[in-house]
Automatic annotation (TrEMBL):
It is found in: Cell membrane. This is ABC transporter ATP-binding protein. GO terms for molecular function: ATP binding; ATP hydrolysis activity. The keyword ATP-binding applies. It holds the Pfam family ABC_tran. It comes from Geodermatophilus sabuli.
Length: 319
């Protein structure tokens, strides 16, 4: 029997958190040219979305609408449920933005720049802590114009993170950074995401997308042509099996799903069903006592999938 006090409530699953960023059928034109042609995506708190695409695919044009710097010519964008342009004051305090090219005054020092920026924010991080996080403590008294390209990028990032943003929009955050600084940036961004921030970033470094992104959207000529997790995107391309085969080995069997792209001695096969294809191949080799020299089997990489879809035929502007 139930005890006399109030019965236990049935377990109600928690309501799903609304997306931090919601983009629906976004369009953006420059005169007659439509640079963004109806893209849609969501980013939830604690999630990183990477927008990939060749130069001119429309990534920056889309981000500028999220940042509240431009109006869409169609569709809608919501950041924390608000319009980033009309509700700019509300959105801005929760939004960290790293533009592709920042225009910081060159004659301020690093510390002066960060301190000045901190004064415009509601709850900034301590300046010393922020500089230490990106390894700029030793450059605090150096004028911005004297910084190296990588140091300047790390300063840009410091400013983007200074207000403890709930949404972070990063346009090519690690372009020009050395490998160690790039890893520092990844760690910083990951830390913010682990604390619940939502991140949208663009990058030309596929390993950056692999390292940071929970989901990836590939843009081509203003449209999203492929979207999903790294694994889902890689699976859109066939896997490769390679081995060498002696001249006196019997002919390879026809294996369903397998296409032969190079014949012996260096054989290359492609398949979208790697495990059954390998099983059939290894069974055949065992039955015929054939040695598959240097056997390799590999799923497609993100790079292969990207190259297969990202480059439009001809000029994207003409597409
Ligand atoms: N102010 C503008 N006026 C006219 N066309 C523009 C303008 N800004 C961008 N474009 C065009 O819009 C297209 C998309 O540009 P965008 O900068 O959004 O691409 P992207 O994917 O960010 O490229 P990248 O990787 O080179 O930064 C390009 O063809 C570009 O030339």
């Amino acid at each position: 029997m139930h005890p006399s006090h109030a019965p236990a409530r049935p377990a109600v699953p928690p309501a799903p958190e609304p997306p931090a960023v919601e983009v629906v059928d976004l369009r953006r034109r420059y005169g007659a040219f439509e640079a963004v042609r109806g893209i849609s995506f969501e980013v939830h708190p604690g999630e990183v979305l990477a927008l990939l695409g060749v130069n001119g695919a429309g990534k920056t044009s889309a981000l500028e609408v999220l940042e509240g710097l431009a109006s869409p010519s169609g569709g809608s964008v919501r950041v924390l449920g608000r319009d980033p342009q009309h509700d700019r004051a509300d959105v801005r305090r929760h939004l960290g933005v790293l533009l592709q090219h920042s225009g910081l005054p060159g004659d301020l020092t690093v510390a002066e720049t960060v301190t000045t920026w901190a004064r415009t924010l509601t709850d900034p991080r301590p300046v010393d802590e922020a500089l230490a996080q990106v390894g700029l403590t030793g450059r605090a008294d150096v004028r911005v114009r004297s910084l190296s390209g990588g140091e300047r990028r790390r300063l840009d990032l410091t400013l983007a993170l200074l207000g403890r943003p709930r949404v972070l929009v990063l346009d090519e955050p690690t372009t020009g950074l050395d490998p160690e600084s790039r890893r520092t940036v990844w760690t910083l961004v990951r830390g913010l995401v682990d604390d619940g921030a939502a991140v949208v970033l663009t990058t030309h470094h596929l390993e950056e997308a692999e390292e940071l992104a929970d989901r990836i959207a590939v843009m081509r000529a203003g449209e999203i042509v492929l979207a999903g997790t790294r694994e889902e995107i890689a699976e859109t391309q066939p896997a490769t099996i390679r081995f060498t085969l002696a001249d006196d080995a019997p002919p390879l069997p026809a294996i369903p799903t397998v296409q032969v792209s190079a014949q012996r001695p260096a054989v290359e096969l492609h398949t979208r069903a790697l495990q059954p294809a390998l099983t059939a191949l290894l069974t055949w080799a065992a039955e015929h006592r054939v040695v598959l020299g240097g056997l390799q089997a590999r799923s497609a990489s993100l790079e292969q999938a990207f190259l297969a879809v990202a480059v439009a035929d001809g000029d994207p502007a003409a597409a």
